[in-house]
Write a sequence for this structure.
């Protein structure tokens, strides 16, 4: 997957082609499943799908494949998919499906008291700009 920051910028781009390309890529990543790449049976045997049998959108959803030979002469294979939640979160934000954060319940004044050994108490108060004189 392309850099997330770049994809965020392109989602707000004035270039409709870029925006549609990013949306399409995010939709593919959001709809990907690990079972598109591998399957397992009730005995715990894992079967990888051959690369030439993987559709393009599934290949694009794979972030990393790591093959490590072990002492038995077998290969240990790890498949890592791109972050599906991040892709779905970007899509949800783009389509206005995420709630806006409500800052009304946050405190506007924060008090800090510092105590040191043998020193007087120092108090600092932080105010919002609207409350500042």
């Amino acid at each position: 997957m392309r850099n997330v920051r770049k994809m965020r910028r392109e989602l707000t781009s004035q270039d409709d082609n870029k925006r549609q390309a990013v949306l399409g890529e995010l939709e593919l990543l959001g709809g990907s499943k690990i079972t598109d790449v591998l399957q397992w049976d009730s005995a715990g045997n894992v079967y990888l799908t051959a690369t030439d049998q993987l559709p393009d959108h599934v290949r694009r959803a794979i972030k990393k494949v790591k093959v490590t030979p072990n002492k038995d002469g077998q290969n240990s294979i790890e498949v890592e998919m791109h972050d599906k939640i991040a892709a779905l979160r970007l899509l949800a934000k783009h389509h206005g499906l995420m709630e806006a954060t409500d800052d009304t319940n946050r405190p506007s004044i924060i008090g800090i008291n510092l105590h040191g050994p043998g020193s007087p108490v120092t108090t600092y108060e932080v105010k919002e700009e609207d409350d500042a004189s």
Observations:
- The mean pLDDT is 78.
